[in-house]
Design brief:
Layout (H helix, E strand, L loop, with lengths): L1 H13 L8 H21 L8 H16 L4
Helix pairs in contact: 1-2, 2-3
């Protein structure tokens, strides 16, 4: 997963569609954040007051704002 994400981020950066970043570190961070969030919310049910939908919305927002350029 992280290797594919790294390749995709590299492609986006090269095309100017994503901001300049350390693509390997970003791929690891985003992949780990997503995996851990999915596990804790969907499997452990923690925190109990965060729905899967809300967690997905938060992850999507973080990925989008963290990766893509404003233009």
């Amino acid at each position: 997963f992280v290797d594919r994400l790294e390749r995709a981020l590299n492609h986006l950066v090269e095309r100017g569609e994503a901001r300049h970043m350390d693509v390997k570190a970003t791929a690891v961070a985003l992949g780990s954040m997503t995996e851990w969030t999915a596990f804790t919310v969907a499997e452990l049910g923690e925190p109990a007051d965060v729905s899967i939908e809300a967690a997905v919305d938060a992850i999507v927002e973080l990925w989008y704002r963290g990766v893509f350029t404003d233009g």
